[in-house]
Amino acid sequence: MENTIKDTSSEDFESGYSEVNGLKMYFEIYGQGKPLVLIHGGGSTIQSCFGRIIPLLQQNRKVIALELQAHGRTSDRNTELSFEQDADDVFVLLQNLQITKADFFGFSNGGTTTLQIAIRHPEIMDKMILASALARRNGVVQWLWDFMPQASVENMPAALKEAYLQVAEDPKGLQVMHDKDARRMIGFKDIPDQQIAAIQMPVLIINADKDIITLEHALELHRWIAGSSLAILPGGHGGYMGEITTLETGFTSGQLTVLLLEDFLNK
């Protein structure tokens, strides 16, 4: 294992790469305190997904943000994307960073990856926040499945394309990332109910009232996971945290979201 860390303390964070299952995985570390791991959504980077709330989260936490296979600054491997492999990659990264226990906040596809971490590597997880996470195919609005077969880089959200191109070493990787993400979603299979019901750690489920993840699905997750908490917030997919494709002018709801997260994490 090799970690390469660039000291960016003047920018209030450290960044680096770690050798992870054949990947050169990029990560950033902010603040001090108990570790909170942020796992981004499909097609995203750290900044496009979490850039608006990291400054708030780092005030009381050691925030570890990362980029998954083929996303942002992390390299690709000659395999398709899977949530299970992403979960294993995150686990190895944290081992490399000598993190033995952490809280996790996963958004969208990152929420599904976080579910897989809870299933495959529960020993590293203390508390889990699932933000707009998908566990079953019927948990997403139908228009998304109707759109996926026609998905292309050309109709990918411009903000996500720009965010990728701002940080990636090779702009040709955009096509690869997009196509692998699209194939993963087209082939998405339900996580078995018994695996979700077996989750033991404290869980907070967050969904937006105009999300692409249905309110019914968020409620199902809440019912499957004993003792979990559920919060429904106003806005679209990720609007409650300022995700770049739903970021609104004068965004302020991040403060409310972070207060909600801290209340859950500090109990």
UniProtKB/TrEMBL annotation:
Gene3D superfamilies: alpha/beta hydrolase. One of its GO terms (molecular function) is serine hydrolase activity. Residues 34-148 form the AB hydrolase-1 domain. It holds the Pfam family Abhydrolase_1. PANTHER family: VALACYCLOVIR HYDROLASE. This is Pimeloyl-ACP methyl ester carboxylesterase.
